[in-house]
Amino acid sequence: MNEHGMLVVVSGFSGAGKGTLMKELLNRYENYALSISATTRAPRTGEVDGKEYFFVTEEHFNDMIEKEELIEYAQYVNHSYGTPKEYVLNQMKMGKDVILEIEIQGALKVKERFPEAILLFVMPPNAQELKRRLIGRGTESMEVINARLRRASEEAQGMEAYDYILINDEIDTCVEEMHLMIQVQHKRASNNMAFLSQIREELKNI
Ligand code: 5GP
């Protein structure tokens, strides 16, 4: 029914398990594409340029802003992150639901520009579990982990702006819930305006 794909914004505290969740969703279902962001932060061990992120300099990032190549951008713990526009719009035109794994400021900007987007917030079952996962990941210093936990506390203030909350306790359940929420969003009347107009026309002429 939907001619175009939808934007799916996924936010959540650092360490909530968004990465694993996205990977599993893309493994299971074909209709999703994952947007690759640009960032000025350094790659973590194992991260590849063009796969997890496009790792760019401050100058390059500012250039992208100036040329309006980003759908949105924001600062997160001393670094810039942004969503390149071209790939996202092309994938949507091809009917794919495009997932943006971004933080809250960016998420709110997307909702302003694309009101039909669905905003999901992923969280762990409790705060202790969040800290445990961040430390267990072993990719950040204690200083960065603490900065990220402080940021989580700030972001927790804005969670009401999201459409749905996803508790990532058990990954299998969480993936299926996420898929279901997106499918339901596709069925919203406001996301099917072309189809509604068509039915109205047909009813007039019947
Ligand atoms: P990380 O450094 O852990 O990969 O990402 C830090 C935060 O930046 C995460 O909350 C992630 O969702 C967010 N982020 C990643 N890419 C983007 C983006 O393109 N735009 C915005 N606004 N946030 C992003």
TrEMBL record:
Q: What job does this protein perform?
A: Essential for recycling GMP and indirectly, cGMP.
Keywords, comma-separated and alphabetical: ATP-binding, Cytoplasm, Kinase, Nucleotide-binding, Transferase
Matching entries from SUPFAM superfamilies are given as: P-loop containing nucleoside triphosphate hydrolases
Task: Write down the CDD domains for this protein, in alphabetical order.
Answer: GMPK
**Descriptive protein name:** Guanylate kinase
Q: Which gene encodes it?
A: gmk
Instruction: Name the chemical reaction catalysed here.
Output: GMP + ATP = GDP + ADP
Main location group: cytoplasm
PROSITE patterns registered for this protein in UniProt: GUANYLATE_KINASE_1, GUANYLATE_KINASE_2
Transit peptide among keywords: no
Q: What is its EC number?
A: 2.7.4.8
Q: Where in the cell is it found?
A: Cytoplasm
| PANTHER family assigned | GUANYLATE KINASE (PTHR23117:SF13), GUANYLATE KINASE-RELATED (PTHR23117)
Sequence ranges assigned to domain Guanylate kinase-like in this UniProt record: 5-183
- If you read the UniProt record, what top EC class would you report for this enzyme, in one word? transferase
- A Pfam match is Guanylate_kin
